[in-house]
Write a structure and sequence with these properties.
The complex is a heterodimer.
Chain A lengths: L12 H10 L13 H8 L15 H4 L5 H5 L4 H5 L3 E8 L8 H11 L3 E5 L3 E7 H13 L8 E3 L24 E4 L4 E6 L5 E7 L6 H7 L14 H16 L11
Antiparallel strand pairs in A: 1-3, 1-4, 2-3, 5-6, 6-7
Chain B lengths: L5 E6 L3 E2 H12 L4 E7 L12 E2 L1 E6 L4 H14 L4 E6 L8 H6 L3
Antiparallel strand pairs in B: 1-5, 1-6, 2-4, 3-5
Helix pairs in contact in B: 1-2
The chains are: A alpha+beta, B alpha+beta.
């Protein structure tokens, strides 16, 4: 029997969403469209239309040594061209953001190649070759894992994921990179990832409603679905905890919950 | 020296400068209010006037039920998403050691 990955245990909505995002065969739903140029502007690593800077010649010109691994692994477009390593960083609010940093790490590991991801409490950074970063950022910004109000594209001064939301339900940003346009109900980026102004505001669409967010979230919360309501997940967490705590100490002991 | 009590308003959402101004304007009209201070997360931006407010501290002459009811009425009007009210002393009211060293009065 062929092994079929389960990805994540549980039957509740957050568990289903986690499973969905982690499963590479599931295509992320596209809920907005942002042009390539705008993605480049928000990232701020280069000007739109500018050439990619490189740190080494293209692989084809380099004359690589004979190596079975190099033959086996197809380099990513960025690696092929010798791009610089660049990054994109997202902050996810604790108030029912569509995804949280830890699941981002899981999701990226299943979906993207040639990247290095770093998880912190409120933010998640992913490093890769410049054109790969742009492709990843475009896919993530356009997909259902990004909400205009509860997710932020922040290169620095990321503080705000655990702060109260503002009156319009927007996550706090100390650098005020995005503004809420009351007339259209849309969130617009007026600064790039590191806080430099950009020539024209970039709209990322309307924030989702609270009910919709609760359906889409991967976060277990006391005022949403708690982890205790999903027995299988709780069992997994307890298993992991037991094995971490006692596995190296008295491994002959049976796990007791 | 008489230490006046303070009433802290903790809105459940970070409020804009405009809403905070409305609340403070409304409150400073009353005689029993001696000082109103606001506090919020720091802004690292050139447009510093767009700050957010997370705490409002109202210093009052005397803390009694009438005062609390008036303050609650004002809060109900401007903070429909909910808030907490606490009574105590939340800001500095006398010189501390470091202030003494700095020569502050």
């Amino acid at each position: 029997m062929a092994y079929k990955a389960q990805f994540h245990p549980g039957k509740s909505d957050p568990s289903k969403n986690r499973r969905k995002y982690m499963d590479p065969s599931y295509k992320l739903q596209k809920i907005r469209s942002v042009s390539d140029e705008d993605v480049v502007r928000v990232l701020g690593h280069r000007q739109p239309g500018e050439d990619y800077k490189s740190v080494h010649p293209p692989l084809e010109e380099m004359g690589e040594p004979e190596c079975p691994i190099r033959e086996l692994v197809e380099p990513t477009p960025g690696a092929k061209a010798g791009d610089r390593i660049r990054y994109v960083q997202f902050t996810d609010s604790v108030y029912f953001a569509p995804i949280s940093p830890y699941q981002r790490s899981w999701m990226y590991s299943y979906r993207y190649r040639g990247m290095d991801s770093g998880t912190l409490s409120g933010r998640h950074v992913v490093e890769a070759r410049e054109r790969d970063v742009e492709a990843i950022a475009k896919e993530l910004i356009e997909s259902e894992t990004f909400d205009a109000a509860r997710t932020g594209i922040r290169g620095r001064t990321v503080h705000g994921h655990a702060l109260r939301l503002d009156e319009n339900g927007i996550m706090f940003d100390a650098m005020q990179r995005y503004v809420f346009d009351k007339s259209t109900g849309e969130v617009k980026y007026v600064k790039d990832m590191v806080g430099e102004p950009i020539p024209a505001p970039i709209s990322v669409g309307k924030p989702l409603s609270e009910d919709e967010l609760k359906k889409r979230t991967t976060i277990y919360r006391a005022d949403g679905v708690t982890i205790k309501q999903d027995e299988e997940v709780l069992q997994m967490v307890q298993n992991v905890h037991w094995e971490r705590s006692f596995g190296g100490f008295e491994p002959f002991k049976e796990a007791k919950f | 020296m008489k230490i006046r009590p303070e009433i802290q308003i903790f809105p459940f959402k970070l409020i804009s400068k405009e809403t905070a101004d409305k609340i403070t304007d409304e409150l400073t009209r009353f005689d029993f209010v001696t000082n109103v201070s606001v506090h919020g997360p720091s802004i690292n931006s050139n447009e510093n006037e767009n700050y957010m407010v997370g705490w409002i501290w109202i210093e009052v002459e005397d803390n009694n039920e009438t005062v609390q009811r008036i303050i609650k009425d004002v809060c109900d009007e401007y903070l429909p998403f909910g808030y907490n009210i606490e009574i105590g002393r939340f800001t500095k009211y006398k010189k501390g050691v470091s202030d003494y060293i700095k020569g502050l009065n």
